[in-house]
User: What shape does this take?
Amino acid sequence: MISQGYDHVLASSGQQKIEWVRRSMPILASIEARLTSSTTIKGRRVGICLVLEPKTANLVLALRNAGSDVSVWAPADCVQTDVVHALRAEGIQVFADEQATDAQDMELARAFLETRPHILVDDGARIIRLAHREFPELVKNMMGAAEETTSGVRPLRAMFNAGELRIPVINVNDSRLKYLFDNVYGTGQSCVMAMLDVTNLQLAGRHVLVIGYGWVGSGVARHASALGAKVIVAELDPVKCLQALHDGHKVCSIMEAASSTEVVFASTGIEGALSAAHLEAMNDQVVLCTAGGGNYELPMAFLRGLGRSKAVRNHVVEYTLPSGKRVLLIADGHCVNCSAGEGNPIEVMDLSLSLQACAIEELALNGSNMAAGIHPISDTIENAIATTRLAASGASSEPMTPQLTQAMTQW
Amino acid sequence: MISQGYDHVLASSGQQKIEWVRRSMPILASIEARLTSSTTIKGRRVGICLVLEPKTANLVLALRNAGSDVSVWAPADCVQTDVVHALRAEGIQVFADEQATDAQDMELARAFLETRPHILVDDGARIIRLAHREFPELVKNMMGAAEETTSGVRPLRAMFNAGELRIPVINVNDSRLKYLFDNVYGTGQSCVMAMLDVTNLQLAGRHVLVIGYGWVGSGVARHASALGAKVIVAELDPVKCLQALHDGHKVCSIMEAASSTEVVFASTGIEGALSAAHLEAMNDQVVLCTAGGGNYELPMAFLRGLGRSKAVRNHVVEYTLPSGKRVLLIADGHCVNCSAGEGNPIEVMDLSLSLQACAIEELALNGSNMAAGIHPISDTIENAIATTRLAASGASSEPMTPQLTQAMTQW
Amino acid sequence: MISQGYDHVLASSGQQKIEWVRRSMPILASIEARLTSSTTIKGRRVGICLVLEPKTANLVLALRNAGSDVSVWAPADCVQTDVVHALRAEGIQVFADEQATDAQDMELARAFLETRPHILVDDGARIIRLAHREFPELVKNMMGAAEETTSGVRPLRAMFNAGELRIPVINVNDSRLKYLFDNVYGTGQSCVMAMLDVTNLQLAGRHVLVIGYGWVGSGVARHASALGAKVIVAELDPVKCLQALHDGHKVCSIMEAASSTEVVFASTGIEGALSAAHLEAMNDQVVLCTAGGGNYELPMAFLRGLGRSKAVRNHVVEYTLPSGKRVLLIADGHCVNCSAGEGNPIEVMDLSLSLQACAIEELALNGSNMAAGIHPISDTIENAIATTRLAASGASSEPMTPQLTQAMTQW
Amino acid sequence: MISQGYDHVLASSGQQKIEWVRRSMPILASIEARLTSSTTIKGRRVGICLVLEPKTANLVLALRNAGSDVSVWAPADCVQTDVVHALRAEGIQVFADEQATDAQDMELARAFLETRPHILVDDGARIIRLAHREFPELVKNMMGAAEETTSGVRPLRAMFNAGELRIPVINVNDSRLKYLFDNVYGTGQSCVMAMLDVTNLQLAGRHVLVIGYGWVGSGVARHASALGAKVIVAELDPVKCLQALHDGHKVCSIMEAASSTEVVFASTGIEGALSAAHLEAMNDQVVLCTAGGGNYELPMAFLRGLGRSKAVRNHVVEYTLPSGKRVLLIADGHCVNCSAGEGNPIEVMDLSLSLQACAIEELALNGSNMAAGIHPISDTIENAIATTRLAASGASSEPMTPQLTQAMTQW
Assistant: This one.
């Protein structure tokens, strides 16, 4: 059993961080107030498997304050140790260790699942898949889960199509309030900034290859371009390619782009999106990172097998290829904004984590009646959250009138 | 019966325009070649009800060249007379008159429907609705229709929900290849440019109110902002409001925006979106136009009833309100890019009209087996068109590999 | 002697245009009021040699209203005939003919100089140079001149360096209020828009070559890029090249750019900037125009000598090169915004023409005491004009305080 | 005497950082090679007073490698301790201490001047002014100095106008290669990023007040706007105000902006630009930082005198005003990119520090013959540096030809 003790100094540091983010998360505060004044999640066991940083901790505490029994898991590359201690100081069980190996992360995940959560919030569907593979009894009794990212929705759809998904999963990722904001503005901005922060380089005048032009990729491209980069997009879907072309980017295959590429953002969420052959074709000193997904998109086995690597700066390891060309890998290929930065901006996580809180509320209320499968967030939830956020920014929507309602429904 | 005679000088002018656009419509040329080498639309009666300008004429001629019997209708504010003559010189029946009143336009539409088209291509669902109201026998025998715009899809959905839609309609508007390009880049860019062209004003430093933040409105806002305007967005949907906020625009109600507004673009497609009270609250000399929809969005009856108007420039009429403040109405409130400009850019119409050509092909092949209702364009058609367009721009998508296919489908 | 008669219908059309622009020229109106209430320019003969369109006409009338005796010259490609008639209807002598040949334009210029202006406002220094070559007695008695453009300041500096400039010339072009607004936002925006308007093409996804990255070229590049173009810059000055690189553009020689270029804007003001060899290296159907300067930048003798040209659209002539490749020349190579559009936006010309009015005022007051040479516009004039313009836009500068004054002048 | 001993671990950390920046500073490397192969600066005592971080350290080592005797001073808020140790490990005398008080910084500066530099490189003209006040004999024997920033050029001009500047100063700041790149892209980008990095907030949807619209302010505004902020500009100069208006920003006084301001960047370089009254008028929790200048722009005495402050996050102190409203001060009001980030991007400092290296070379060659006063960097130096930088980016300028030279010099 993992110790849930904590260090006071670390806990204090984590608490300061959590207090800071609370200032800019008014939507979650309003949902916390609503849940606290009801019994909806009281006594429910909720398992949170998200990037473990102060914004997530704020969700965890909100759920705890509303009476649920929360436990937390996160893989090593997504853990801020002082936040772990701050949560433990609040009595939350946290199954996470910044120093864990991949195997240890899996052991922590199993220990976490032993807490027998009624409701899971997952990122990448890692724990949902683990539960289906190894904890069939737990799955049978769960009220459901919510999934945070594109990379997780894809395998969940594959599970559903194969008839193997046993619980209702609320697809938070495909809420407009998630992908239009978290993926484009949040991950897009913070990954570009984290890469610049780690390297102290500039983008103006550089060629940046963005692999994958989904919401994250288009956000990365938009922000890189806004900072003066010449963006090249490689994407499988020809319609998205055309969109990239209209957004002013060059569009071609990775191989065609390789000789002019100076910085790479992999934002596909697809295993093996970038191959060793791609790397060999690129320039010396290419800067390589992932945005949104993880290092499974990169040829990590190839790089690690080279036997020629050295740390050249905090978060930067230089690998020397057989050709003598060097690859500068950022944050070990993990998602750069979380592993080498503070993750998404606070306001954007207030949207995403509020969606998660509402998904938990929905599962607690109706999960037992929902079919196994993938369910959308309702328009009602989206509209309520968006309206709260607008008000917090001093903005508002145009008021609906009976005349407009009629004009929009008649023919 | 409307005369189908033509004037040689006008026809020659129209032909020159059509030849010009053919240079930049390679996708439609490739579809024309495919249809011509098959019998798919041979002998089919096709009715085209789109903005009648050279790009549409190129579609009409492509369908004719492939063996179909094409006739054309368009309302007065969407007609270029020399293009009418050029089509008639080619033997196409055209039911359109730049000088027609609204009532005469309806008579022309009825005459057009008397040609008994098997397949209709509509814009705003005006003719589909007319046919359902007045030509039930025709509707019974039609293979189907295709719809071009958001403003048309909305009433079609209302018809369908009311159980009153009798034919399959292919929803071209909601193809990503349509709304991501035609609406955002095409209509967005060309409406902003047409307004500037008509007025010779600049946007830098001005407050521009965009009503409606759908695809067209967001395109108008993007282009106005790129030209230096401070954009204010009024929108009913709070999620779209939030998107506008993140795109850097001010977001509030029309009434709150009124006192700082200098230019208005209505892009809602909703009748009565802008009221007389809104106009009264605005600045003296506000410039007023619509983008994407039509003057039904504006309080035209109020303006016309004022009895105080004068033409102050080509395409600009000044109305004086009871308060003494003046409204500068562009293009009589009709969609500004078509009525006071050349409509969308050629390349973007190559996409949209190629979708229409593929929709006609699909209806000719399968329309008889399709249920009454609203049907999407297939991914296969979208991908084929996008790939042709990419190649025409010297771009290409990332090639799919067996490994990637496997990575995307397993869990 | 050229007839100064006029046609009532044309004059009326021109008058309507002038009235329209007066609505948006508040700065010039305030200067007109000041000059009218003084005797500064009363009875002075002022010669205006600017693009002859409604905004210029408004300056001409303002000067006439303030008591000066104004005459006007403009070359054929810069003449709007109805504006000529409107000015003549007001009793202004206009030496301009939209149909004139180059030789006839020179004869008109000589007739114009026979009116013996005390003060000249020139564009490109054409008339100042003509006066120095052929009218030495006139030059001896002139109070001075003002010059509008970069293309004119360059030869004036050469004249001054050669000891051959005999009058004081106020360099309006190098006022920040001119080049930061007229050249960047005015000419930049209006040339890109005029090219799109003439061709009905779009820029999204296209490669646009901008030759010359001065104020006009950077404005063209900024607007083309904002509309989705991939901009390539060719520029002699390596520092400006670096600026273009940081603005996100590709930077290389014309020859290196040729094979990917689809649209060319020449914005150098330098004779022969684009050669026949450059054209031969470009793609079939390249679109060619100038922004800011004139067709002397292009290999016009080569194109005209080909013997293979045809008009393919209003303002577009197609030339076929020996290789078979075609060049689409816009507006006969003249500055595209003036020759195929309405010139700069009204607001921007309110700034530039107000500077001209102040330069005339300054020459009338002090010209006799100013040394032959090139003189800047004073900060006082610039600040007064800028402050008027800010107020007209509802904006204002931060008020100066004694503390700030002291902080800025002490060490 | 300050100890010049060093810690091996810290020195090693600093060395790694210096090695990293060397990878992206090819221009300085080429100048180092030229200086090393000559005797120009051999044996010269050079004093460097710039932000003490790895890029500056690379300049210091380059000068040392070329044979000069370099010493370094920097104020506490501009010191990276590991870089200090790395330089001392190389035998460089460094007069800087991250923990120093203001008074101790002055003592360090005096000790630094006791090294009797022939040539000074200064930032803010602090040391040039100190030398003029307290070290008149040193000043008498100096070859000259170079100044890095706008904030320093202003007092130098005041000194010159008062007849009190005794040495030639090369004005590096007003080189186009400096202000167009370092100030706009370097400081502009890195200050916006450092503020976001410190706070983990986002700019999309927020109102950002930029005080001062010089090169730094316009760069901050451009980058904030690119990240979705609504920018408000307060500026004394009406022409710059007009430029801000055309760039799409709102322009008004600080007081008018106060009630909507959420984030402030002071970028004036002027003492007292922001007053206590301004702060009282702003929103609760306004985020306050400086870009380019320093905390003398802010009402630090007022804030410190409040007696109500607490650290709420790394680099963030919250001050509570008498009204109860809170101010979140970043980096103690010091220039945010240097004090809470890594300063400018490496590439941009390669330009600026290469200019400094060339200024030192120029002073070593000709300083004794240069008049006391402010001297520009020569075009030859600028062009050489720009050309090297273009080549490093795979770009190039258009080649000059005899025909173009003739076209540009004749009239």
